[in-house]
Every structure is written in structure tokens, then in C-alpha cells.
Design brief:
Layout (H helix, E strand, L loop, with lengths): L1 H13 L16 E5 L3 E2 L11 H12 L6 E5 L5 H8 L16 H10 L4 E13 L4 E12 L5 E11 L8 H21 L3 H10 L7
Parallel strand pairs: 1-3, 1-4, 2-4
Antiparallel strand pairs: 4-5, 5-6
Helix pairs in contact: 2-5
Length: 211
């Protein structure tokens, strides 16, 4: 009986059910967040390379690496739960691939297979390259969704411009710069949905000096 009590107590302490005097700070459990490759609007973003949506997702994953509330990772059809679903004939292999934003039911099913808490699907909604002015404008749209309930946490729309007309940069370089700016703006909005990240950002602000 004593052994059982000690074992139960140690397990409770392991999972944070018992608070110790040395550590009274609340433990923040990160939400797993799967990021799907971004689709692209065929008409308004036709100048974007087909695989650029993968780049956007990769940029976003990197930008969220230091999140206090989200544990982000990239969707990949080669992940074991997805491969198992295909092998067990639970899903057809074509249904594990893009598009994801345009086929929301499919992405919801994939996120549930991965047992993610939340997921992000998005689309490159607009893209223009002005060769004369050497500028690129890029618009991203994204949805943050709760995986188990399908509840929309928040919708996002961000835009960014790269180049000022004086740069000798090529289109692909300008496109990457614009994507980086857009993803930075999107990251700020996503972190705004995480209480842990909002709290951390507030704590970083210097206190106002009393007059």
C-alpha cells in the first residue's frame, strides 16, 4: 500500500498535480499548432511560384519558434499518422495533399489525425510585381482553427511591400523580402491570440518612470 501511495504521489508531481514550495509559478502548457502549406489564388497571385506556399509556411514556423503558448510544426504528408491513415485506407493519398485552405474539411481531418490542438491554413491572396519600380506587393490570408471543435479562433489578413524603386534586386529577392514582412505581421497577430505570449510581451515593456 505504501509503495502504491508513493508511486501515485510521484506521478502526480511529475504531471504538475502537486505544487511544491520551491516552484509555485503556474506551468504553461503549449498548444500544438500545425501549419499547412499556403495555397495561392490562381487569378490574383498567378505570378507566385507553385511551391512558394511551402516557403510561407516555413517562414511562419521559424517566426513562431520562440512562442510561449504555441508549439508549431509543419504539416507533411509523410508524418506517421498521415501515412498510417493512407495505409489503413482511412484516407486516399490525394486527400493528404494541397490545396488545404480551399478544402477546409480536408485540412480539419488531417489536423485531427495529427492530434493537434490548433492548425493554420492560409492562402496567398494577392501578388503584384512592378518591374519598372522594382517593387513587390504580397497579401496573405490565414485562419487559426481549433482542431477538436473546428471553431474559428481568428481570421487574419496581412499585406507587405518590398522595394522602393531604387534597388537593383531581382523579383525573387523582392518576393522573399515581402514574404518575410508579411509573415512577421502575421506572426504578431497569431501571438496575440496566446495569453502566454501576450503576457510575455507585456512583461518585456519597460515600466514608465514616475514623475
Amino acid at each position: 500500500m505504501l509503495v502504491l501511495i508513493l508511486t501515485a504521489s510521484s506521478q502526480a508531481a511529475l504531471f504538475g498535480l502537486i505544487k511544491t514550495k520551491k516552484n509555485d509559478a503556474p506551468v504553461v502548457v503549449k498548444q500544438s499548432l500545425v501549419i499547412f502549406p499556403f495555397d495561392k489564388d490562381i487569378e490574383s497571385a498567378q505570378g507566385v511560384p507553385d511551391q512558394f506556399g511551402d516557403n510561407i509556411a516555413g517562414y511562419l514556423r521559424t517566426a513562431l519558434a520562440n512562442s510561449k503558448g504555441y508549439s508549431a510544426y509543419l504539416y507533411d504528408a509523410r508524418l506517421m499518422p498521415i501515412k498510417r491513415a493512407v495505409n489503413d485506407n482511412y484516407m486516399r493519398e490525394p486527400d493528404t495533399k494541397a490545396p488545404y485552405f480551399a478544402e477546409k474539411q480536408k485540412s480539419a481531418k488531417l489536423a485531427q489525425l495529427l492530434a493537434a490542438n490548433c492548425y493554420i491554413i492560409g492562402s496567398i491572396e494577392g501578388y503584384t510585381y512592378d518591374k519598372a519600380k522594382k517593387t513587390v506587393e504580397l497579401t496573405l490570408k490565414a485562419d487559426l482553427i481549433q482542431a477538436d471543435s473546428g471553431r474559428m479562433v481568428q481570421e487574419f489578413l496581412v499585406a507587405a511591400t518590398a522595394g522602393d524603386g531604387n534597388q537593383a534586386a531581382e523579383e525573387d529577392e523582392l518576393r522573399s523580402l515581402a514574404a518575410g514582412k508579411a509573415v512577421t505581421a502575421l506572426t504578431e497577430k497569431i501571438l496575440g491570440t496566446s495569453p502566454a505570449d501576450v503576457k510575455a510581451k507585456t512583461a518585456e515593456k519597460p515600466a514608465k518612470k514616475k514623475k
